[in-house]
Amino acid sequence: MKSAVLFSGGKDSVMALNYSLNQGDDVKYLLSMESKNKESYMFHVPNIHLTSLLSEALEIPLINAITDGEKEKELDDLKEQFYKLKELGIEAIYTGALFSTYQKSRIENLCEEVGLIAISPYWHMDPKEYMELVLASGFKVIISGVYADGLDETWLGKEIDQESFEELIKISKKTYLHLAFEGGEAETLVIDGPIFKKRIEITDSEIEWHRDSGNYYVLDAKLVSK
């Protein structure tokens, strides 16, 4: 099946891509929606500019589209891209949706309208089991944004490995943190993994912190041979 992946560079879209490839799909494109609105309801924002570099690292072509990120109207921009993918022979769109009915339902409705199959392979998977699968799959995931109780500035730029995941489990027992961050508690960036032909090396970054939340911005990065 010829497919495309709605791609942000975060753990969930990378896992959806990994699933599609493991299913034997012919993944033709990554679709990245770059929102001008940092408060977009639909689209991942921190470090979205890195999707072009990630596309090179994965050796899968990227379609990058700009949206104003205005609630509901941003769906028209996504639909336009779905029509383009349909014309290019794409049959299915993979998404990394886990628990957000808002996102999943809208993507499914657009796909039905356009004539595409919408697939969210990890929908409603247990958060702890899902994160264990992310780790077991060999992806190097760093935290690029934190917006929840229990997550302070020290988490920005930190890799989610077994040790830090155990710490997240402890925090979740105190604050009801969603371990897969599906409630918007944090954002992530994947910089390496088994499906990457090259890894991402971050050469310059900065942290922006505002009292109880913040972002880790990658200012410069390069591809490195593995």
Distance between the termini: 29 Å
What is the structural class? Answer: alpha/beta
- Oligomeric assembly: single chain
**Envelope shape:** globular
Radius of gyration, in angstroms, nearest whole number: 17 Å
Describe the largest sheet: 5 strands, parallel
Give the H and E element order: EHEHEHEHEHEHEEE
Mean pLDDT: 93
Helix proportion: 25-40%
Which parts are unreliable, with pLDDT below 50 for 5 consecutive residues or more? none
Could you give the count of β-strands? 9
Strand content: 25-35%
Counting H and I runs of at least 4 residues, what is the number of helices?
A: 6
The order of strands across the largest sheet is 3-2-1-4-5
Output the keywords.
6 helices; four-stranded antiparallel beta sheet
Q: Can you walk me through this structure?
A:
- This protein is an alpha/beta fold.
- It has six helices and nine strands; from the N terminus they run βαβαβαβαβαβαβββ.
- Strands 3-2-1-4-5 form a five-stranded parallel sheet. A four-stranded antiparallel sheet has the order 7-6-9-8.
